[in-house]
Every structure is written in structure tokens, then in C-alpha cells.
Amino acid sequence: MTPHPLSMSHATKRFGSFLAVNGLSLDVPEGRIVGFLGPNGAGKSTSLRMALGVMTPDEGTALLFGAPPTQQTLSRVGFLPEERGLYKKMTPRSTISYFARLKGLSGRDATMRADELLETAGLEAFAKSRNSKLSKGMAQKVQILSTLAHRPDFLILDEPFSGLDPVNQQALEDLIRAEHERGATILFSTHVMEHAERLCDSIIMMAGGEKVFDGTLDDAYNVLGRGARIGVADNFDLGKALGEKGFRARRDTDDTDTYWWRVTLDNGMNAQDALRAAIETDAAINGFMPDETRLRDVFVKLAGHQDGPRNSSVTDSVEVAA
Amino acid sequence: MRNVFLVFRRDYLSYVTAWGFWLGLAALPILMVLGAVVGGFAANSAPVRYYTVIETGDTYSRQIEAEFDRSLSDSLRQARDQFSAIGPSVDDETLDRFLEEGGDLQPKFIQVDPPAESIDALRPWLLGEQLLDGPAGQKPLFAAIIVPTDGSDIQYWSEDVNVSELRLKVQRAARTISRVRVFADANLDPGIIDRADAAALRVREQRIRTAEEQVASGNEVTLADRAPFFVSLGIAYILWLMIFSVIQYLLMGTIEERSNKIFDTLLTSVRLPQLLAGKLGAVFAVTATMMSTWALLGSAGLAFGLATMSDEMSAPLLAALGAGFSPQIMIPAMISFILGYLMYGVIFMALGSLCDTIQEAQTLLSPLMILLMLPMIMIIVAFNDPTSPAVAISSWVPLFTPFVLILRMPTEPPLWEVIVQIGLMAVTTMAVLWLATKVYRAGAVHGAGVGDAVDWIKRLIPGMGPKQARS
After folding, report:
1. Is ipTM over 0.95?
2. CB contact B269 to A (< 8 Å)
3. What pLDDT does A311 receive?
4. Where do runs of H (alpha helix) occur along B154-210?
5. Which residue among A54, A83, A103 sits closest to B267, beta carbon to beta carbon?
6. Which whole-number Å values give the CA distances from A156 to A94, A105, A208, A250, B3, in the listed order?
7. Chain A residues with CB inside 8 Å of B17's CB?
8. Is the distance from CB of B270 to CB of B7 less than 8 angstroms?
9. Per-residue DSSP letters for A40-101?
10. For chain B, which terminal residue's Cβ has fewer other Cβ atoms within 10 angstroms, N or C?
11. Which of A18, A89, A102 sits opposite B269 (nearest CB)?
């Protein structure tokens, strides 16, 4: 069996008495886009730094491609840190080329790759400008390109969207998809849920230094329980009729000419199934509003109570087999 | 190793393409030329000053003039003796003839006739409100020397209390006149004093050598005897200068990486020891580049000079170079240079890793700068006396050994002392490397700052205690 690009087992990191990450275990399977979510201070960056060997776990292990982080395994990884910067006196071309060479490319290949990436990103005109002359957005692009320069098998992006305008956020989303299509496994941390919803196959959620969720997006939505509202024109007992078809429905608030029923969708059910069942009951349907459960709501539910200092475990983890 | 080289190459190129490097490179030759030019200019451009003597007769006037002549003669003879090792010898007769003819020497003090006879009347000239006509054009009166007729003290009047040369000449003249008078009163010929001075034996400095060396080199003190001392002083000073200036590149570079948040990116590509090695190597290479350039320039100048010199002049110079750059001096010097560079280099890097700004760095640098001034003081002490106990004792302090051991080498300290001191220096360098790497890791990886460094220091001081563990 091919080892996962990243496997962490009971990884713990303390800073003095402060427990930054507590017993984190996770796997990032090959070929996935995994979102690493959590509020500020949840321990995401510390976890990623342990994964990369920048920090050593006090307890537990972190393995890249089945081995501890070494120069060899790290050469297959591209890392974009949360706190990013460039050498101000270098040019975008020399910056990308330098980091590509550090990852093992030859000088010639690194320069060619830098030119190629700069052209793709529309920065070829600035290839030989000093980094200090670049706009913030351009500088961030250069940093991202430096991460991709050696065509890594595994990309770890720590808050990659922070500081980018909407246009560049979209461009980065496209780039992540393109890297995924190329075959790269991607793990990115964010606290902007919309990016995770659009990009991820699965998510891992951290709060208070601990993992509080690990599963697919659907699994995440199910944490809150999904549902839909169906309105009927008369006082028809939709609850009873749907109950015979395996749905649970209860009366909700009424409008002037509509009687609303709230349907709870269990695992495997979706709102369209509930609507279809309601139509089959011959009820006079005049309203349908599927719940728009967002990852944000799941995030708030799971992570919202995790602020404040921590010295020990305080949360329960929700883990769903992917 | 490849990544060490890549870090080394990037840092090296970033330093040598900076303006600061080229300014530093040009600084030494420019300073040397400026020093020579400004020194020569200062010596030749000393202002000409008028003074006057008010007395009955001209005894003091003539004696003060004679003191200036004697002073000039002594200076020339002293210079002749000092440079006789490398220059053509000048005999006393030639020198006397030169002095009699006056050469083209411009006197710094010119005696003029008094424009008035009392100090109150002289006041406008002494304060510069009125100018005197004299051989050097119109000038204020610098000083008036009034010799009272009642035998009381000579009055020396001047607005400038900082220049003492003329006052000292007057004092010397007064002493000479007194001696002449006392001799005359005792019915002795005053010329006996000059004859006694002329008959005094000269002290000839000679260097004691083994019998074999004496046959080969003679007894005279030559430039080759003094060369090791000058070379060791030069190396110690260059090491100090390098650590004080060039090594700060490390500090600045580390601060830039920390403030630009580059560490995390770097540390996922390069291991920490590789990063440190590359950076230290780069700054060392910058130092080596500077020194090689200066050495090349110096060698070219020297080669040119030697080519234009007679054998009589070039032979002692070549002998001096051979003695100054002997293995006995150069091997300990190179070891000290490398260990000293490493020791202070990692300290600067570790400090840089704790700072986001230059201002923060200055807080931590101040004690280090004070520490670095001590070796400079030792260089000055050794300049006067390389065998001074202060130099010997401070050479046992490992932080100072890199500088002071070099200074001691011309005095040929016992071999065991040299070996033990180099050993201590090496052990200390390793300890500093270990500690600085830990500090660097704390700064670069964990984001420790100046405040944390203060806490660490407080923990080391009994009673201060730790404030709070870092979170």
C-alpha cells in the first residue's frame, strides 16, 4: 500500500504550559484536496509545521510519504506558509529559481521553470524587477509560484487565500484545481469556509488544539442535520403523509396562505426526495425551501466554543470514515 | 551540501551586489590615501603664527629661536635614525648642511618686532582686532613674551591656551639661559654645556641573537625585527574591524529573513544547520573577498615599489615581509581569525533571529559592542607594550583570545600557552555555536523575541526568576 502523503499520529506540541496541539491524528490520502479548518489559534499552523519537520512533536509522529520529514521527503512537498515573505532585493525570477533549486532542480531547469510559471501567471514583465517593487498581490503570486516550482507531489498551503483580492482568490482556486488535476495532493488551511466548500473532497477541523472533525463535506453538513421546508395551501397533514414514506416532518411557522412543514433529512436523503414524496401525497404544494446548511454553520457549532487558554483536552471529536 | 552551497551563494551574491560592500571595499584604500594626504596636509598646513618678545636686550629672543632650530635638528636626526633600516643613510654633515641652508622648511612660529611695549597696548593685536605685517603677511599676534627686568617670572600672553609648543620653547630657553648664567657666575665657560652634549655617547639599539644568527644577520635592529609586531597588530585590528563591521551583515540578513517571514519557507527546504553554515560561509567569503582584494592591491603596490627601489632598499623590506608573515605568526593568526569569526558570527546571527527591527537589535547589541571595545583597548595596550600583563591575562579570556593571541605571537609566548589558549578558544567557539543555534532556532522557528531573551537572562540571575514560560 502506498503511504499517504501525510500521516500524523497522536502528535502533540506544547509551548511551556500551553498545549498548542493535543494528540492530533490524521491522514491525507493521495490525490485528495483536504481542507484544514479551524479558527485563529486552533493549532493549524503548528500542526502543519510539525508535519513539515520545522517543529518536532513533543509526542506522537508526523510522517510524509511514510517517512519522517527529511530533505528527501520534503523535496516532494511544496509549502506556502501563513506568514509569507520574499527577499526584497531578489527578482521574482531569481526567487522562484532559488527555491526550486533548494528543492532539487538543476539551475537551468529552475530558471526555465521560473520563466514558465511567471509567464503563466502573467508576471513575465516583472520577472527581473526587484521583489520590493511588486504590489502585494504580485508578491503573493510569486510566493505561490515558488511553492509550485518543483512540481511537488504534495502541496501544503497555510491560509493561501488570506490577503488576496477576489480576482486573485479565484485565480488561486483555479491553480489549486489545476495542481490537483496534475496529480498533486493538496492540504490547505483556511478559516474561510467558502473556499473549502468549493474545493475540498474532505475536511479536517481543528479547535482548541484538537481535531474536532474529520470527514467529507456531506458528513460535515450532517453534523447539523439538514432539512427542507415545504408549504401546502390548505391544512393538509403533510407530516402524516410523509411519515408513511419514511420522512419526518413537523409543523413550522405559517404564512397568510401557506402552511409550512419542516422535513428533517436523515443520512442518504436529500431535499429533492422529500419534495417528490410530498407531491406524491397529492398535497397542494405552494412552497419549497431546502435548507442551505453551510460549512460555516458546522464550523461555528464545532469550533465556536473553543476560544480561550487551554491546558488539556476539552472537546469531543467527530470523526467520520472517509 | 548542495543546499549549503545554494544558501551560501544567494547570501554571498546579495552582499557583494550591495552598495555597502563596495563602499567597505573601497574604504580601506581610500582611508589610507586620505590618511597620507590629510596627514601630510595637516603637517604642512599648520598655520604660521607671529610672536614677539619684550625684553631688555635680545637674550631671550635669540635663545627661543635657537630652541626652535635645535628642535628641528633633533626631529630630523630622529627620523633619519628611524628610517635608516629601509632608506639610504644620511650622515651628520649632510644633515647639518641641509639645516644651515634652511631647506624649504616653513617655520610655524615667526618672531616679529613688538608693535607695543605693554600688555594693555598689545591687547588689540593679541585678540586679533589688529593685524601685524610680517614675513607671512598680515596676521594677528599669537603670543607676547614679556621678560620683566626685576627677575620675576616670564609672562607668556596668548588668547590660544591649547597650543603649548611656543610656551614650552620659552620655558626651555629660560632654562638654557639660566644654566649659561650659572656657569658664567662660576667662572665656567658656558660653551662647556654644548661640548658636553656633543660628547655624550649615543645609545645604539642592538638585538640579541644566537651566535649563528648573529653571524648571519648582525646585531642591528632592522625592520625585519619589528615586522612581526606590526603584522600581528594589523591582523588583530583587521579581525576586530571585520567583526565590528562586516559581520553585521549576518545580523542584518537574519533580521531581514525574520521580518520578511522567510524562515518557514527556508526551513522546509534546508535544515537549520545547513542554513547556518551557508550564511556563515557567505559572510566569511565576503570578508575573504575584501581582504583578498586589499591584499592584491597591496601586493601590486608593493611589487611596483620594489621594482622601483634599489636593492639596498628592497632587501630589508623583503626580509621584513618574510619575518612578518612567518608561519609562527600566520598559523595562530589564521586559527584565531577563523574561530573568532565563527564565535562572533553566530552570536550576531542568534541576536538577529530574535529581532524584527534594527531598533530591537540595537537593544541587544549594545552590551556586545561594549564587550568588543575591550579587545580594541588591548590592541592599543599591545601597541605600546606587547608584553604587558594586561595583554597576557586577557589572552586567557576566550572571547578576547582571537584578538589578543595574535598580538602576543611576536613576543614568542610559551608553546603550551598558545596550544591551551587555542584549545580553550575552540571549545568556547563550539559552546557558543551550540548555544547560538538554540537561540537561532527559538527565534527563527518559535518566533522568540527580544523580550524572551531578557527572560532567559533573568533566569540565569539568582533571585530574578522566570517571568513566564513562552507560549
Report:
1. no
2. yes
3. 55
4. 165-185, 191-199
5. A54
6. 22, 19, 21, 45, 21
7. 89
8. yes
9. TTSSHHHHHHHHTTSS--SEEEEEETTB---HHHHTTEEEE-SS----TTS-HHHHHHHHHH
10. N
11. A102
CA-CA-CA-CA torsion for B298, B300, B303, B309, nearest 10 degrees? -80
Angstrom distances, CA of residue B41 to CA of A26, B47, B83: 77, 11, 21
Residue B263 neighbours by CB under 8 Å, 6+ apart: B257, B444, B445
Q: What are phi and psi of B291, to 5 degrees?
A: -65, -40
Beta strands in chain A (DSSP E): 6-15, 18-28, 33-37, 59-64, 77-80, 154-158, 185-190, 202-207, 210-216, 226-232, 248-254, 259-265, 285-290, 318-319
Helix B450-460 crosses helix B358-384 at what angle (to 10 degrees)? 60
Contact across the interface for A87 and B256, Cβ inside 8 Å: yes
Name the residue type at position B245.
Answer: S
Of A291, A13, B12, nearest to B4 (Cα)?
Answer: B12
Per-residue pLDDT of chain A in tens (322 residues, 90 and over written 9): 688 999 999 999 988 788 889 999 999 999 999 999 888 888 888 898 899 888 889 999 999 999 998 888 888 999 988 777 788 888 999 999 999 999 888 989 999 999 999 998 888 888 888 888 888 888 888 888 999 889 999 999 988 888 788 888 888 888 889 999 999 999 988 877 888 888 888 989 888 888 888 888 877 777 767 788 899 988 888 888 888 888 888 888 777 778 888 888 876 777 888 889 999 888 889 888 887 667 777 777 777 655 554 554 444 445 444 3
d(C-alpha B95, C-alpha B93), whole Å = 5
Single-letter amino acid code for the residue at B45: S
For residue B123, give the C-alpha cell.
591687547
What are the respective helix, strand and coil percentages of chain B, to the nearest 5? 70, 5, 25
Query: Which residue type does B139 have?
Result: K
Q: How far apart are CA B130 and CA B49, in angstroms?
A: 14
The answer to whether residues B439 and B353 touch, using CB atoms and an 8 Å cutoff, is yes
**Chain B nearest-CA residue for A106:** B2
Question: Is the minimum CB–CB distance between B469 and chain A shorter than 8 Å?
Answer: yes
Question: CB B18 to CB A89 under 8 A?
Answer: yes
Strand A6-15 vs strand B109-111: parallel, antiparallel, or unpaired? unpaired
Q: Which of B8, B272, B261, B268 is nearest to A104 (CA)?
A: B268
CA dihedral B245, B246, B250, B253 (to 10 degrees): 90
CA distance B105 to A134: 64
Report helix, strand or coil for A211: strand
How far does chain B reach from its first CA to its final CA, in angstroms?
A: 34
B311-324 and B223-244 helices cross at what angle (nearest 10)? 50
Q: Which residues contact A57 (CB under 8 A, 6 or more apart)?
A: A11, A12, A13, A21, A50
